[in-house]
What we know:
The complex is a heterodimer of chains A (about 240) and B (about 400). Chain A is of the alpha/beta class. Helix content of chain A is about 35%, strand content about 25%. Chain A has helices at about 50-55, 80-85, 105-115, 120-130, 150-160, 180-195, 205-210, 235-240, and strands at about 5-15, 20-30, 35-40, 65-70, 70, 90, 165-170, 200-205, 215-220, 220-230. Chain B has about 400 residues and is of the alpha+beta class.
Amino acid sequence: MAIPLIETRKLNKVYRDDLVETPALKDIDLSIDKGEFVAIMGPSGSGKSTLLHVLGFLDKYEEGEYLFEGKNTKEYSENELADIRNEKVGFIFQAFNLLPRTSVLENVKLPLLYSSVPKSKWEDIALEAIDAVGLSHRQDHEPAQLSGGEKQRVAIARALVNNPKVIFADEPTGNLDSKSGKIIMEILQRLNEDEKRTIILVTHETYTAEHAQRIIHILDGEIDKDYEVKKIRKASEDFEK
Amino acid sequence: MNISHSFKTAIIGLKTNKSRSILTILGIVIGITAIILVMSLGEGAQNLILSEVQSIGSKTIGVSPGRHPTGFSDVMSLFADSLKEKDLEVLGKKTNVPYAEKIIPIVFGSESVIYGNESYRATVYGVSPDFAGIYNIQPQQGRIFEDEEVKSKSDVAVLGYKVKDKLFGDSDALNEKIKIKGKNFRVIGVLPKKGQSAFVNFDDALIIPYTTAQQYIFGIKFYHRLVVEADSEKNVDQTADDIVATLRNSHDITDPEKDDFFVETQAGAMEQVSTITNILTLFLAAVAAISLLVGGVGIMNIMLVSVTERTREIGLRKALGAKSAEILWQFLLESITLTVLGGIIGITLGAFFSFLTALALSRFAGLDWKFIFPISAALLGLGVSAGVGLVFGLYPARQAAKKSPMEALRYE
């Protein structure tokens, strides 16, 4: 059996606020294979975003094991973590997090600055990613000139430039109208199906979660349910309706 | 790590907050401007004084009575009466001071000079005819008195340009009688306009034989100063030593601490001038440096604000793979860019103002003042401003670098 891309064993995280300790993740055991499209669901405060951040190397965990590509991540130094964030994972945020007053092209190039990719290739790689999300005509615009949906597509392009093993999306449709949301989901599904990219998405909407193949339900920091989606929603078909 | 990108980011960051950036670097600009100005003017002043000293001729040695002045109390020793006629005689002997070419005794003082109804307070110099050679002056009218006239204590006078102008205006002064301390003098020469030269303002001078001055004007038997000219530059030091030895012998002095005279060579004088102006320049530069310090604190303050304002950007960059060192450098480069920019503006302004000052001094004060752009000060200014950026940018940059990506992204 192939090694799972992501595997956790008894993963625990606690938020400390002066005297109060709030457990955020409790004994999380999960395994995600390469090429999967997984939705992490749960009510707000359930710990679903925390789990995504820990899996995406943005946040630390206290106890348990997290194996990425079969390697224990506990030992990684700050600089090694930075390299993993840069090379292995792509992140899409609810709030887009684009640099203001900076063109789409420059925004998409941003991860390349911190990579080992030679500078001469940056432009081509970035343009290709922008093309993949259908924004070639907007490459010189600044974020303020874009709609919410377009901003999120820029963020997806940015997540793609370093050809990551896995894309983490934190409520990517949360700030968007339903039509823009569908476009985003369509792009994510295409990346998963056509390019076999692993995608892990956090959402609190069942509708959005049903675009994934599998749903992990979190409640009070624990995995409550973990099941295959029987009837996967096709964002491309939604359009035709 | 990509320097050119970090630099670009820094420029963009500074441009978006243009007025804030300008206000921030104002302290640095003022500090560097002041330093460049002070150093440029200091060097100009030094050059001016040194060229004055040099104009006496590098072969001259001054002998003054009293101790070498080391403080205010020693100023009184200027009036010590230790240099007498006997000293002039022993110094004149070739066996004592073989390389001495000319020796001129000098007595001087401020006296009223009267012609008709006109009166003018001039500096009366009693000298020997050789002074004209040493100070390189030629009368524009008439002549200088001769050795014979010195011996006979003749009542002849050579007028400085200004003295002649005040007393006689445009009319001829030659052979006219003027009065000093009730004694009549015949004008035998007029000096050309010369300006301040080598600490002696010949324009304001009235020059008479030293013998006459000693007996009739000042009523003294000693000299205020002796000026010795060596036959060549290389013999100056030897001659100075010979003078010291001769005078000690003549004055029966065995302990050098008890010398009642002191000898100055031009090299010594130049060294002294350099030391004094250097200390002065350093002191003023130090004062200017305080404003740099204040400017640096301003930079630090603004950088801290900038780091706080851009917390989310820092979080994003870290989430995309930026290492702490790269974030550190981004903010350091930003503050260094700011201060170096301030430094360049300061150097330009400082050079401009010192150029204007030099122009004004030479135009309106009649000084032979040359504008000097102090390359060393400019380099120092650049180095210091970069240093200020580095030192005062370090703390904010470290604050930025140590933020954890998630905390930074969550920052509202």
